[in-house]
Design a protein that fits this description.
Creatine Amidinohydrolase; single chain; alpha+beta; 4 helices; 250 residues
Amino acid sequence: MIQRKSRDEIKRMRHAGHIVALVHQEMKKVIEPGISTKELDNIAFKIIKENRAVPTFLGYNGFPASICTSVNEQVVHGIPDEKCIVKEGDIISIDVGATYGGMVGDSAWTYPVGKISHELEKLLIYTEEALFAGIKQMRAGNVLDDISSAIEAVANREKLGIVRQYGGHGVGHVMHEDPFLFNYSVGDKTLLKQGMSIAIEPMLNLGGDDVVVAEDNWTVSTVDKKPSAHFEHSVVVTDDEPLILTKLMP
């Protein structure tokens, strides 16, 4: 069942989202060649706790860290590790969740490590474009498939692979609520209504669509080992413009 959020719940989600945005603000500063993904996790944990929030991911179905760190061909759910050191030319997706006042903020962003190739730059640019194309459709009266179709249109235009086994989701009282949001059109005519909150998260690949889960039962990577990018915001439908919940508040 899709839960529509009250004004108070949205206020708490915005606060949780602000904390998530603080983590991303710091990630942008500290991600550089030579840093380990475990060190990134430690930084994120400290920021979340200092802001009187709970790391949503830590312990979620047994996940052992506060953020997901997915490097290059890793798509999502990468586990931070002190032995995983990013190097010049890599890309790394950071997925962050924070719970404040019983409400969740969830956002992911893919960052360059130093100077990256022109091909990778375009992957990041167009995956971010796909995110905002989807957000633009988060309006009362539209349907869920409008978001999916907007994301797919950008991917198809740029001939990027679309991760099909994973997608966006409702978010709020817990990290994963109804509905599930595909990143390609499936004809879902679920009507968008004021108060619906969804984490929109395109995952696009330089190669094919297919992905595989590693032996750790978490890390998802592309089968063809081509790089993947992941951008995500938690967004709520309002009576006016879509409201992005996972950005810094004034």
